[in-house]
Automatic annotation (TrEMBL):
It comes from the Eukaryota. One of its GO terms (molecular function) is oxidoreductase activity. Signal peptide: none annotated. This is Uncharacterized protein. It comes from Staphylotrichum longicolle. The keyword Glycoprotein does not apply. Keywords: Membrane, Oxidoreductase, Transmembrane, Transmembrane helix. Gene3D superfamilies: NAD(P)-binding Rossmann-like Domain. The chain crosses the membrane at residues 128-149. It holds the Pfam family adh_short. The keyword Lipoprotein does not apply. The lineage of its organism: Eukaryota, Fungi, Dikarya, Ascomycota, Pezizomycotina. InterPro entries: NAD(P)-bd_dom_sf, SDR_fam.
Length: 286
């Protein structure tokens, strides 16, 4: 617990500035709530040219869009668009990438934030829902978007694929084939390993044209674990009260990934800095 608290820095820097955001196009998955919502609100407020809220529930996305427009003062001239994306469906992932390719003139960064944490053994695409959403569809989306964002990068710019990971995976001891736990840790570990492999296939990044990095937002007060067992959520609430970051503060780690340089390619970022050598944290973190 001591190491967990030590890495929960508060009041993180906001490293995306108006000059960096102006005119740029961003895609954020899972953007109607929590970290994705707060990151999208920052980007719109900072003057982004377009912010795509990629969400499973378009109605919830429309509500988020209205709240972002109000906060950013962009009502009537909104740069925010709501696009459907169901990470539990491979067809939806493919359709989303086709739309990005067909409709967007440029893509500067994609924040792959959508994830689930639940104990119910619900299936999707022949796998446990957590495995499909947190690992398989996330990697499918990243892989399909790679050539698209590279082609749509502004001249001289390097687009980013920011993968929202978790150091909780490094402490995981669950086996998802028989586990009845929430599986969040194991799936985030699998995602991290897959992204590292993908990044190794695209080196050096300044030659291949796309920076892929991993971001652990730390323990943040969100509703991610709303479908987790009661004993887990009670423990999580206690940890939130003691040292949890707000969703807004945690979203700044995602925005760090959006602007981090080529040196971040394939690396894990934490607390708006290089997190490669930070000791593994308590299981519930990030």
């Amino acid at each position: 617990m001591t190491s967990a608290v030590a890495t929960q820095t508060r009041n993180l820097p906001l490293l995306v500035t108006p000059s960096l955001a102006a005119g740029r196009t961003y895609i954020v998955t899972g953007a109607n709530t929590g970290l994705g919502f707060e990151a999208s609100k920052h980007l719109a407020t900072l003057g982004a040219g377009k912010v795509i809220l990629a969400v499973r529930n378009p109605a919830a996305g429309d509500i988020a869009k209205q709240e972002i427009d109000t906060a950013a003062g962009t009502a009537g001239t909104s740069v925010v668009e709501v696009w459907p994306l169901d990470m539990a469906s491979y067809d939806s992932v493919r359709a989303f990438v086709r739309r990005v390719d067909a409709e967007l003139e440029r893509v500067d960064a994609v924040v792959l934030n959508a994830a689930v944490a639940q104990a119910k053994r619900e299936m999707a695409e022949g796998h446990l829902l957590s495995v499909t959403v947190n690992v398989l569809s996330t990697i499918l989306l990243a892989t399909l978007l790679l050539p698209v964002v590279k082609r749509k990068a502004a001249e001289g710019a390097m687009p980013r694929l920011v993968m929202v990971a978790s150091r909780a995976g490094f402490d995981s001891k669950e086996d998802w084939r028989g586990s009845r736990g929430i599986l969040y840790g194991p799936t985030k570990l699998a995602e991290t390993l897959a992204v590292r492999h993908l990044a190794r296939e695209l080196v050096p990044a300044d030659k291949t044209g796309v920076i892929i990095n991993l971001v652990c937002p730390g323990l943040c007060v969100t509703n991610l674990a709303r479908n987790a067992p009661q004993d887990f959520t009670e423990k999580l609430r206690e940890m939130h009260a003691k040292f949890g970051r707000t969703a807004e503060d945690g979203s700044r780690t995602l925005l760090h990934g959006v602007v981090a340089g080529v040196e971040s390619h394939g690396k894990l970022l934490h607390s708006c800095e290089d997190g490669e050598y930070v000791a593994p944290s308590n299981l519930a973190l990030g």
